[in-house]
Amino acid sequence: MKKLIIILILVLISQLSFSQACCVLDFKISGKVTSDKIKLDRIYLPSTTFLVGYDKFDSQTGFYYVELGSDLFSTKFRSHLSSDFCMNAELIIERVFKKVKKYPIRITEEKRDHAGEFKSYELEIPTEQIEFLINENEEIEIVLPEIKI
């Protein structure tokens, strides 16, 4: 019985000392999308799994989307579970959000008189045109430049 308890304690200690921490980050993406010609439906933004290289933008988990009810959008998202988010906000911005050179963006419009059919517009925003802010609570906000379709 003593041997079993000692083995159990050793296993627990090894798990605590050799396990990797994983964290989740809540962050906000905001911006403005305008068009004089079409009625915008959704904007698709790269997910954290895309930004760190786990997924492609076209995969089901490679993007987040926001319903566009107006020109302005501001939505909170949650990252995937990873040790990439166990750092301070400045390091997360540098190592995750600025890791790619360009952010792929897809905007959709619903085709007139064709319910359920959408037309897509794809563009890329260079990372240096994106503003990364940190508020007093160490929360990250990603502000995209104005997008005109």
Would you give an account of this structure?
By secondary structure, the protein is an alpha+beta fold. It has a single domain (20-148), classed as Sandwich (Immunoglobulin-like), CATH 2.60.40. The protein is built from 3 helices and 9 strands; from the N terminus they run αββαββαβββββ. It has helices at residues 2-18, 48-51, 89-97; strands spanning 26-34, 40-46, 63-67, 72-78, 102-110, 118-126, 131-134, 140-143, 147-148. The strands form 2 sheets. Strands 1, 4, 7, 8 and 9 form a 5-stranded mixed β-sheet that branches. A 4-stranded antiparallel β-sheet has the order 3-2-5-6. Strand 7 and strand 8 form a beta hairpin. The longest helix has 17 residues, at 2-18.
Task: Give the N-terminus to C-terminus distance in angstroms.
Answer: 72 Å
Report helical residue fraction. 10-25%
Q: What is the typical, i.e. mean, pLDDT?
A: 85
Shape: elongated
Task: Return the CATH topology.
Answer: Immunoglobulin-like
Label the structural class: alpha+beta
The low-confidence parts are: none
Main sheet properties? 5 strands, mixed
For this structure, what is the CATH class?
Answer: Mainly Beta
> How many domains make up the 3D coordinates?
1
Order of helices and strands: HEEHEEHEEEEE
Kindly state the number of beta strands: 9
Global Rg:
21 Å
Q: Give the second-level CATH assignment, the architecture.
A: Sandwich
Strand content: 35-45%
